[in-house]
Write a structure and sequence with these properties.
- The complex is a heterodimer of chains A (about 260) and B (about 325).
- Chain A has about 260 residues and is of the alpha/beta class.
- Chain A has a single domain, classed as Rossmann fold.
- Chain A contains 8 helices and 10 strands.
- By secondary structure, chain B is mainly α.
- Helices cover about 80% and strands about 0% of the residues of chain B.
- Chain B has 14 helices and no strands.
- Classes of the chains: A alpha/beta (about 260), B mainly alpha (about 325).
- At the A-B interface, strand 6, helix 3 and helix 5 of A face helix 8 and helix 9 of B.
- The complex binds adenosine-5'-diphosphate and magnesium ion.
- The site of adenosine-5'-diphosphate (ADP) has 12 residues of chain A, from strand 2 and helix 1.
Chain lengths: ~260, ~325
Amino acid sequence: MEQEKIKLQRVSRVYEIGKGSTIIAVEDVSFAVSAEEFVCIVGPSGCGKSTLLYLIACLEKPSAGEILIDGKPVTEPNPKVGMVFQPDSVFPWLTVRENIEFGPALRGIPPSQRQRIAEYYVHLVGLEGFENTLPRQLSGGMKKRVDIARAFANNPEILLMDEPFGALDAMTKEKLQMELLQIWENERKTILFVTHDLEEALMLGTRVIVMSRQPNTIQTILDIPFPHPRSMILKTSSQFQEYRKKLWELLHLNV
Amino acid sequence: MAKLLEKSLPEPKPRISQQTSNRMISIATISALILTWVIITQNRLVEPLFAPSPTDLWQAFQNLLPNLPGDLVASILRRIVPGFTIGVTVVTLLGIYMAMNQVGRAIFYPIVEILRPLPPLALIPLLILWFGIGYITQILLIAYGIFIIMVINSFEAVRNVPPIYIHAATTLGANRRQIFQRVILPSIVPDIVAGIRVSAAAAFGYDVAAELMGAMTGLGYRLVLARRYLLTQYCRYLDHYCHPFFHHRFSDQTGRCQSYELESARGTKVRHGVGQLLLGVRQGIRLAIYQKLVSKEVQNENHPSPFCSVRARPLHRRLSTSDSTTG
Ligand SMILES: Nc1ncnc2c1ncn2[C@@H]1O[C@H](COP(=O)(O)OP(=O)(O)O)[C@@H](O)[C@H]1O
Ligand SMILES: [Mg+2]
């Protein structure tokens, strides 16, 4: 058995809203992710997907249960765990390059080396020529790509991605999906990827976690057997369609 | 792909022509106003005392020219710049402190709320009592005026920093100090700059008020003298041309400093807009009170006033050589 990179043990998160009333955002969730796995999380909106990522990134504390990374309980945010947020989080006062260099700059990496890192990731997400542009001049999709490049440029071991391609047009989305797969295959990162797009989950994931709403917990975990490297052709295969149907049924049993 | 991306950027051409046509409208408006002014004064439709003509004004400008650089330097360098700097520094630090520290807020917020409704000019008698008539009082009045205008602004600016930026910096490995330096400070710059722009106009107003308290140089001082001797063309020159001119230049510069806008949630924007509106209304009320005080000052001219010092005499004589133009 491989080393468990991320492990959640009976994790719950309860929010107090006003006097005495509470919302259970995440209820009794347990799962483990091995190193270099690509796990997708799908589920209806409000089922606690974003909260789950916030908990793993230690931006929120669980109300009950324990979260382990590399076998150690998480107590504070750690640059080893990177995150791409659901809404746009590009710093508007920095240029594209400065945004991408933000992580390395925090760690005091010299400018010449930072420059090379930035160039590499600018190229990767296809933003050449926009290095010195301020975010307000970029479209929504371009900002999302800066978000992604910024998270990658910090070279985290674990990447938490919260519907990163949700706001993109179909073409850009497919291009970035393929690129993400390539990065994952080359750099062997552990990725937790939230999406509401079932095809995307099947296309990218080695496993898919299906969550249910009320209770906000794990319903099923599906292993996805398609071999790597994958390409878009996969979508046309009958096996893919079969899995798609299965996932769809799992989600709609609940609603 | 690249072509697609380029399309999403605004095309520069129509914006420039829009700008030029707007500029033309502005020029036309100003020209029309000046023309009206010339027609009214040339045909003596109004008593020259109440509306000096452009030629009177030019004459006044030439008469004031030897004093003008000294007055401007006195007003701007000796009083406005130090007062403004003190005010902005204190208010920015206090705003950040109140927004980031619960205890700090508990201590200072009620004090600020009690002070805020007081027009700074109402403090003049107290300031004079405490620090005498002089330089320190003048600077403190300006600094305090700026403080009152900007304090809530800078407090709200820190509170409105979108949490997602702090979260993003945290996951990239920023510690508390780095979050403060690299996220909070740059995000509040637009709000602070907006506050500076609003209060820059007021600084000149407070400067004039400050110079009413025993200054012997500066624009406000010159204004007092001119009003005292009913040399309207000087008042007008000083009041309407010097101050807005310099204020305008200044706003222009700070406007350029404001290099980006925070495209935060719509809610924040609306709240921000309402805040700015309220600031504007308060500003208006304060100016009205100020104007009222100044007009009282002018009405009292017939009575001997403590401002009417012996030192004014030689200058009066100098000014009175141009009395013929007043008619
Ligand atoms: N800060 C919060 N305060 C109160 N309730 C919250 C908060 N964050 C999330 N919730 C609630 O928790 C539930 C799960 O939210 P979320 O994790 O954002 O769902 P998802 O990302 O799957 O759409 C929702 O019902 C939401 O209203
Ligand atoms: Mg979500």
